[in-house]
Amino acid sequence: MVSLAEVVLVAAVAGGVTGLGALPLFFTDRISHRTYDGALGLAAGIMVGAAVFALIVPGLELGSPLEVVAGVLAGGAFLLVGNAVLPHLHLRFRADRVEGTAIVEPSVDPSSGAGSNGGHDTGTDTTDDTSDRTGDGSSDRTGDSETAGDDLRRATLVGSAVTIHNVPEGLAVGIAFASGESAIGFAIATAIAVQNVPDGFAMAVPAVRAGVSRGRTLLYTTLSGGVPEPIAAAAGFALVTMVSGLFPVAAGFAAGAMIAVVFRELVPSSHGHGYADTATAAFILGFALMLVVDTVLAV
To answer: What are the φ/ψ torsions at residue 99 (nearest 5 degrees)?
Structure first.
């Protein structure tokens, strides 16, 4: 069985991978809806696969179905209550703006119907400047300031959402290692690391647009996962290790929270831009990938 220090290290690495999502911003701030939706679908499939193969199945093997079900319900409730209580921003499109994602549609005057398609999402790459312009073509500095402020608030709120989601993920890592099967812990840590990349991207883009330097953005996105996940992993590991027979309930709790994240955030965010088939195919691929990872690491 691995030590607490090793669990914290693994969780810190898995959480810190969130920072990789900011790396593309060093080269471009444009990304297609298809790519983004596919990334979210892949992350969702991996998370569901991790919840099923690395948590629920082992929980059923070591406990009763009632214990696992109770944990799943408690975990889902925990995530939903956290979403309702803590201020954050869901990753979704609204009107002509994209909240919490990499893509922002150009501002459109509703009364004029101006714009490429009247303000509706086209599913194309778009990160055009959203600042208003005056009749003589000069930039409206007040509009620029307000837009930057909106982007900064958006980055902060998206960062809050990412941090909220990293708590149950960290718990899952710690609980999985506490089962005594290191392979389960490494499998779920791998899954979480992969799905953390699009989370980091969603947080990084509005931060860069708000004027935060790319270096600081990389640091903040890394910390958003690299701090809460090892703390939560340590708590989950210590709790299950100290309380005999708690693993089935704890595993169900982590699985329920992760599945709630998928259906509350990732699935809706990946199905609003006309690429639902791409997101669905990526989801299936992610689920299959997690099955392979779990099988290989369990050998």
So the answer is: -95, 120
Q: What are phi and psi of 139, to 5 degrees?
A: -75, 140
Q: What are the backbone dihedrals phi and psi of residue 239, each rounded to the nearest 5 degrees, phi first?
A: -65, -50
Instruction: For residue range 16-31, list pLDDT tens digits in order.
Output: 999 998 888 888 766 6
Q: Which residues share a beta bridge with 93?
A: 98
In this structure, what token pair is assigned to residue 148?
């930057």
SS3 297: helix
Q: 134's torsion region: left (phi>0), alpha (psi -120 to 50) or beta? A: beta
In the chain, what percentage of residues exceed pLDDT 90? 24
Mutual angle of helices 141-178 and 65-85, in 10-degree steps: 160
The answer to whether the CB of 62 falls within 8 A of the CB of 249 is: no
In whole angstroms, what is the distance from residue 153 CA to residue 238 CA? 36
Per-residue pLDDT of 205-224, as tens digits, reads 777 777 778 888 899 889 98
> Which of residues 110 and 26 earns the better pLDDT score?
26
Report angle CA 121, 124, 130 to the nearest 5 degrees.
Answer: 65
Whether the CB-CB separation of 119 and 96 falls below 8 Å is answered with yes
pLDDT of residue 59 exceeding 70: yes
Pick the closest to residue 198 from 116, 110, 270 (CA basis). Answer: 270
How far apart are the C-alpha atoms of 241 and 97, rounded to whole Å?
47
